[in-house]
Specification:
There is one protein chain. The chain is globular and about 65 Å long. The protein is α+β, with helices and mostly antiparallel strands and about 325 residues long. The strands form four sheets. It has a seven-stranded mixed β-sheet. Strands 4-3-2-1-5 form a five-stranded antiparallel β-sheet. A five-stranded mixed β-sheet has the order 9-19-18-15-16, with no helix packed on it. It is built from seven helices and 19 strands. Strand 2 and strand 3 form a beta hairpin.
Length: about 325
């Protein structure tokens, strides 16, 4: 049984877990390490919910009213439930609308550490660099990451803050952008560098989208309880710190990212944006370092929590 640590604060943390039949359920994580099943707690309290209480997506689509119902339920049922380490924690959104939106080169030091692998004339961009990770890359926060050396032996880590969109919007202004955020989570943009750099014309999609290379979670903290402007981002491999950055060093802040991504393109509730990684990736080290079977990859976002994924040979 994996021991899962929950930060000791009063933030509302929302997760998706699998019940005994493998069905996805919506839960509230408490600081004591226990989880309240939202739908079951509402049933026991004889409370009618205005959304499907088993579904994170339904909660997001339900907007402020649905979130207020969950907050009230959390206050009504402060104890009991089950130990979080006793169940399988799924990605907060087990089924995505589509690919995960990603931002490349969003930390100047990360841009610099990859200079040897780019055109020497490439400058720090004036607009966010967008790419995506395919839906099959999605993985749980404590599930193994598959490794197949016949496909890639250069598997790298990239810890990132994830933004979960809460409202449908297009041509969103920077001033209004944060009003469209439901909450925040952790993502690791695990990347196959050899595939990314030297195959498929240098286009990033394939090297970023191998199955299981987007662990996400462990849960979502609602936007109203999380200030993303200066948050520590840490990667550890086998306990050794590899990345230790902060969102205050982003080249493009989250409102700018949302505004530019939504220009001419509609964002939907439940869309996920991975906002870029700080320096310290394996590719930028001398010599380069790559993940290998048996390694333990930890991804920590301050104020959210820590994911732990073992690299497992496929």
């Amino acid at each position: 049984m994996t021991t899962i640590e929950v930060p000791l604060d009063s933030k509302l943390r929302l997760l998706t877990f699998a019940d005994e039949q493998g069905r996805a359920r919506l839960g509230i994580v408490r600081p004591d390490g226990h989880v309240t099943d939202v739908a079951e707690a509402a049933r026991r309290a004889d409370r009618w919910l205005g959304f499907d209480g088993t579904s994170m997506r339904a909660l997001i689509e339900g907007g402020a009213e649905a979130l207020a119902e969950v907050r009230e339920l959390a206050e009504m049922v402060p104890h009991g439930g089950f130990n979080i380490s006793a169940v399988r924690i799924l990605p907060p959104l087990p089924r995505l609308n589509g690919n995960i939106f990603c931002v490349g080169w969003n930390f100047p030091e990360h841009f610099s550490e990859g200079a040897a692998f780019r055109d020497p004339n490439q400058k720090l961009p004036e607009h966010p660099v967008f790419f995506s990770k395919g839906v099959a890359a999605l993985n749980g926060p404590f599930d193994p990451i598959p490794y197949d050396a016949a496909i890639s032996a250069q598997i790298d880590w990239e810890a990132e803050l994830g933004v979960v969109i809460g409202r449908r919007g297009k041509n969103i202004s920077e001033f209004e952008a944060l009003d469209y955020v439901f909450g925040y989570t952790a993502i690791n943009d695990v990347s196959a560098r050899d595939v990314q750099k030297s195959r498929h014309g240098g286009q990033w999609l394939k090297g970023k989208s191998l199955d299981g290379t987007a662990p996400m979670g462990p849960w979502i903290v609602p936007a109203g309880e999380f200030d993303a402007s200066a948050v520590r981002i840490v990667t550890r491999v086998n306990g050794a710190v590899k990345q230790d950055g902060n969102t205050r060093d982003m080249h493009f802040r989250i409102p700018r990212v949302i505004a530019e991504l939504s220009r001419g393109m509609t964002l939907q509730p439940g869309d996920v944006i991975s906002t870029g990684t700080p320096p310290g990736v394996g590719m930028g080290r001398t010599p380069p370092e790559w993940l290998k079977p048996g390694d333990v990859l930890e991804t920590e976002i301050e104020g959210i929590g820590t994911m732990r994924n073992v690299i497992r040979e496929a």
